[in-house]
Amino acid sequence: MSYRVYLVDDDRFLLDLYAVKFRDAGHEVSVFGGGEELLGALRKEDSKSPDVILLDLIMPGMGGFEALETIRKEKLAKNTKIIILSNQGQDSDIEKAKQFSADGYIIKASAIPSEVLAETIRTVEAGTGKSS
């Protein structure tokens, strides 16, 4: 099955790396360099919500937690899985992600791109079939 994936990271190299990995696996990918860009795309009335957003935490301007909080407050991307993809692996960050109802948390330094892809698909498919 093919999914619509939004990748949000200020590291262009990583964005390109993950985008290629997901596209090669047959998924539709959109990339964003920060939280403001992501929110702009999600607020467009004609845009289809992505199936999953992979969201970095530390970015210039609006960081990942601020973007995630705004998504939840404005009820954007209601049926979208949101996975934190960050090098921030402290318990406090993971706990904060849970408070904002993140669906997953992947530490970049601990996962190669194929593992990120596999975990993302697992997270998305864990929610399919459930009515919301």
Describe it.
- The chain is of the alpha/beta class and 132 residues long.
- It has a single domain (4-126), classed as Response regulator (Rossmann fold).
- The protein is built from five helices and five strands, in the order βαβαβαβαβα.
- It has a five-stranded parallel β-sheet, with helices on both faces.
- Helix 1 (12-24) packs across helix 5 and helix 2 (35-43) runs parallel beside helix 3 (64-73).
- The protein starts with a strand and ends in a 6-residue tail after the last helix.
Keywords:
132 residues, alpha/beta, Rossmann fold, five-stranded parallel β-sheet, 5 helices, 5 strands, 18% strand
Quick recap:
The chain has 132 residues and is of the alpha/beta class. It has a single domain (4-126), classed as Rossmann fold (3-Layer(aba) Sandwich).
**Tally of domains:** 1
Strand content: 15-25%
Question: What is the name of the CATH architecture?
Answer: 3-Layer(aba) Sandwich
Q: What's the total helix number? A: 5
The Rg value, from CA coordinates, equals 13 Å
The whole-number mean of residue pLDDT values reads 92
The CATH C-level class name = Alpha Beta
Shape: globular
What is the helix content?
40-55%
Unreliable sequence segments: none
Strand arrangement within the widest β-sheet reads: 2-1-3-4-5
What is the total tally of β strands? Answer: 5
